[in-house]
Design brief:
The structure holds two protein chains of two kinds. By secondary structure, chain A is mainly α. Chain A has 24 helices and two strands. In chain A, α1 crosses α17. The longest helix of chain A is centred in the first third of the chain and has 36 residues. By secondary structure, chain B is α/β, with parallel strands linked by helices. In chain B, strands 1, 2, 3, 4, 5, 6, 7, 8, 9 and 10 form a ten-stranded mixed beta sheet that branches. The chains are: A mainly alpha, B alpha/beta. Chains A and B meet through α3, α6, β1, α15 and α19 of A and α1, α2, α3, β6 and α7 of B. Chain A: This is Tripartite tricarboxylate transporter permease.
């Protein structure tokens, strides 16, 4: 009851006209900047920080938090419409969002994204409110060994993201991991794959790869088709049927919870969460095969997860004073300068701030929904833009996004390079999603593994003697072996049937029996 | 675009939309002009924090940039850019690419000496122009509240007898700030610093998380970074590395008090690319000298646990030479010098 009282008090704080205005301003800025490819929440928050420093700390954090989850909310729009992820956390959204848009169902995809984002954000806030203090225990329960195991589990999704050709998917994923290794190694400060280029010392920015491999490659493909075969601009219904709503309720609910808990772990964050959720739902769904071809569940899963994670990342920030992601790190810096020391004592010493922020997130999410839903028909019209215009626009957005991030022309060459790579991959049937997955998870996986081995003095059993790590690795093994086992069983059956004509009776009977049993079980 | 029609007007609209984005970006670059003779910056200053956001360097960059912008000490805005990784080498390798560029500055501290000494950077501190030293802060050696180590001597004793059993988390790469601050203290306490298991994390935040989760036994981090967790009782600070007790952790003894003859200050300052003219250096030196006198800066320093310790460009250069000699000694002793 105490928490409820506190929350009411928090609403009192958040509902003051001034704070309401700041929530609105924050989410509006966030959602707009999030839509622009390349410009993510960090740029958005940095842009707002000078304004925030003139405000009272609670209002400032309410506004900056709004910018953050607003950007994640808005980031899906360009992923869906242009295949150009607005923020890193929405890369997975383009896997199904863009095919939907190509089929003329952009409005539907955007609606699904908005609803899933809203649910993800709201579930996240409920989690933050109810369990934040006890969740700090979960936050710290993940050490290097556990992160390694989580990343391994995440990487097994390469199998599901590979489409028809597993070998090509694995090659693609491996290249992604290799790209993650470019730069100065954080464990030994050794240069890797830098070819003497200072520009590569800092590694390759994730969004450059994502924009190149998805957006730019798509432009190349369209150019090659000379505008043929693109979406014809027709936009079918925007509304979701009752059946569709029911269909996405499962992925959205699971994605929200999964996303929130992933967000609570420092170092994982919205991008990892969205990929985990996407591949999880793809495996779970009966129509998993249609994922990647325009399944609304494939939009709902990552969108609910990344918004849940955005809120989840406030747990370590507010309860431990430790940033859980690049964006919350910026927030922490801002808070310190505002004279607020987040940490275990924040909840006791400055309950106004904690509960004010929590309450403002409820409001912010509703504002975002109200803000985004009516605009969907307008956004969807972007696709009616003639291709002769749309394609250059996409290129311009990519270039502005990349250059605005680093002010480096080298990065623009990288963007083009990855665009060409993405195009060649598409032309030769290599899926791009595993590359992105390897890039996101590979670096963290390697670093965690080496840290864990340092701590254990090189003892590899550290990964299986820790319960969390062992469980995650077991799940990873299971998710790899289950499809193999299934394939093996199918092959056995097929062989058994084809051997029917020539081979001995015994074998045939065994095979048939096995087949019947299997059908029954299935 | 002169042909009117649906397509044409769309094109015009698109051009305007794109134009306004770049206008928006450009508008952020306009700042008030502070009058002063000689050289003046002509565009926004890229102020590099060679670490992740939220850490000591980042906070230094953001606070000083803000105080300078607000007090109009520089005629163009200071724009903080984070270039994290590899104990700082990533950040300053970026600055080194821009020789003679007077619109790039970076905040710096001992790693600018330590990382090159460990052979892990193409540049040394001599490849940059010292602008000013601003302040100092102690390192803190912390353990979880339930740790068997009650004092730094307890830890040192364990490190002498069984170093393989203790893992120490730090927020920077091997041979960099946290590691040397640890190695120097351990060596001074009579243990073999090269045997200590030092685990590098990306920043003090990650290091402290691993300590809180019991994944590592000890953590080394800046005094201000551990402040909140010490106050809440989640971690215990065994010692601070400064000469005197730090106002941030007034109850924590110094190493010298604990009988270990070692002082390690995290000094922080500002450097510029090589090849700046005397006028350009003087411009920034003056600006920073005025900056540390601002009330806003003093207030912020108190909040963040920094002790003002200003040195101008020339003195800062000499100080760097001295520090470099001292660190060379420590690194050679512990076998990290390459």
């Amino acid at each position: 009851m105490d928490a409820l009282n506190q929350l009411f008090h928090g609403f009192g704080v958040a509902l003051s006209p001034q704070n309401l205005a700041f929530v609105f301003l924050g989410v509006l800025m966030g959602t707009i900047i999030g839509m622009l490819p390349g410009l993510g929440p960090i740029s958005a928050i940095s842009l707002m920080i000078p304004v925030a420093f003139t405000m009272d700390p609670t209002s400032a954090i309410i506004m900056l938090a709004g910018v953050y989850y607003g950007a994640i909310f808005g980031g899906s729009t360009s992923s869906i419409l242009l295949n150009a992820p607005g923020v890193a956390g929405t890369v997975a959204t383009s896997f199904d969002g863009y095919p939907l848009a190509r089929k003329g169902q952009a409005g539907k995809a955007l609606s699904v994204a908005a609803i899933a984002s809203f649910v993800g954000g709201t579930v996240g806030v409920v989690g933050l409110m109810l369990v934040a203090p006890s969740l700090s225990a979960l936050t710290v329960s993940f050490g290097p060994a556990e992160y390694f195991a989580l990343m391994v589990l995440g990487l097994t999704a390469v199998v599901t993201l590979s489409g028809n050709n597993l070998t090509k998917g694995l090659i693609s994923g491996t290249v992604g991991v290799m790209i993650a290794l470019v730069g100065i190694d954080s464990q030994t400060s050794t240069l890797r794959f830098t070819f003497g280029r200072h520009e590569l010392y800092e590694g390759v920015e994730f969004l450059i790869v994502a924009l190149g491999v998805f957006a730019l490659a798509e432009v190349f493909v369209m150019l090659l088709r000379r505008g043929q075969g693109g979406g014809d601009g027709t936009i079918t219904s925007l509304r979701l049927s009752r059946r569709e709503l029911k269909e996405i309720s499962g992925p959205t609910g699971r994605g929200s919870v999964l996303g929130f808990f992933t967000g609570v772990l420092p170092g994982a964050g919205a991008t990892v969460a969205s990929f985990l959720s996407y591949s999880f739902e793809k495996r779970l769904a009966k129509d998993g095969k249609t994922f990647g071809k325009g399944n609304i569940k494939g939009v709902a899963a990552p969108e609910s997860a990344n918004n849940g994670a955005a809120v989840g990342s406030f747990v370590p920030l507010l309860t431990l004073g430790v940033p859980g992601s690049g964006t919350t790190a910026v927030l922490l810096g801002a808070l310190l300068v505002l004279g607020v020391q987040p940490g275990p004592l924040l909840l006791d010493e400055q309950p106004d701030m904690f509960w004010g922020v929590v309450a403002s997130m409820y409001i912010g999410n509703i504002v975002l929904l109200i803000l985004n839903l009516p605009l969907i028909p307008l956004f969807a019209k972007v696709l009616r833009t003639p291709q002769a215009l749309l394609l250059p626009l996409v290129v311009v957005f990519c270039v502005v996004g990349v250059y605005g991030h680093s002010f480096s022309t080298f990065d623009l060459w990288l963007l083009i390079g990855f665009g060409v790579l993405g195009f060649l991959m598409r032309a030769n049937g290599f899926p791009a999603a595993p590359l992105i997955l390897g890039l996101i998870l590979g670096g963290l996986m390697e670093k965690s593994m080496r840290q864990a081995l340092l701590i254990s003095s090189g003892d590899l059993t550290t990964f299986v003697t820790k319960p969390i790590s062992a469980t995650l690795l077991a799940l990873a093994a299971l998710s790899l072996l289950a499809p193999l086992y299934g394939a093996w069983r199918r092959t056995r059956r097929r062989q058994g049937l084809s051997e029917d004509d020539g081979r001995g009776q015994d074998e045939r009977r065994k095979a048939t029996a096995g087949g019947t049993r299997e059908r029954k079980n299935g | 675009m002169f042909r009117t029609g649906r397509r044409g007007s769309r094109a015009a609209f698109a051009a305007v939309a794109v134009g306004s984005v770049s206008l928006l970006l450009a508008a952020c670059g306009e700042g008030a002009g502070a009058a002063s003779g000689g050289w003046q910056p002509t565009k926004p200053i890229e102020y590099i924090a060679p670490a992740n956001t939220g850490g000591g360097w980042d906070t230094l960059a953001r606070s000083s940039a803000r105080v300078m912008d607000e007090a109009d000490l520089v005629s163009r805005p200071m724009r903080v850019v984070n270039k994290p990784g590899a104990g700082g080498a990533i950040g300053w390798s970026y600055v080194a690419k821009h020789q003679k560029d007077p619109h790039k500055l970076f905040v710096t501290s001992p790693p600018i000496l330590l990382v090159p000494l460990a052979g892990e950077s193409d540049q040394t501190y001599r490849d940059f122009t010292p602008v000013a030293r601003l302040n100092t802060e102690p390192l803190a050696y912390v353990v979880k509240a339930n740790s068997p180590f009650k004092t730094f001597e307890d830890l040192a004793a364990k490190l002498k007898t069984d170093p393989g059993k203790v893992s120490v988390a730090g927020g920077s790469g091997p041979g960099s700030l946290d590691h040397v601050g640890l190695a120097g203290a351990v060596q001074a306490a009579g243990a073999d610093a090269s045997k200590v298991k030092y685990v590098p994390f990306d920043g003090g935040g990650e290091a402290l998380t691993s300590l809180l989760g019991g994944h590592t036994d000890v953590a080394v981090a800046g005094g201000s970074e551990v402040q909140a967790l010490v106050r809440s009782g989640d971690v215990r600070a065994l010692a601070v590395s400064s000469e005197k007790r730090s106002p941030v952790l007034p109850d924590t003894p110094t190493l010298t008090e604990s009988g270990i003859d070692y002082v390690f200050d995290i000094w922080r300052g500002v450097m510029a690319p090589k090849g700046l003219t005397g006028e350009q250096v003087a411009y920034y030196e003056k600006a920073f000298r005025k900056m540390v006198e601002q009330d806003a800066w003093k207030k912020e320093s108190r909040k963040l646990g920094w002790t003002d310790a200003f040195l101008g460009s020339e003195e800062f250069g000499k100080f760097l030479d001295e520090q470099n000699k001292e660190y060379t000694g420590i690194l050679t002793e512990v076998g990290l010098r390459k």
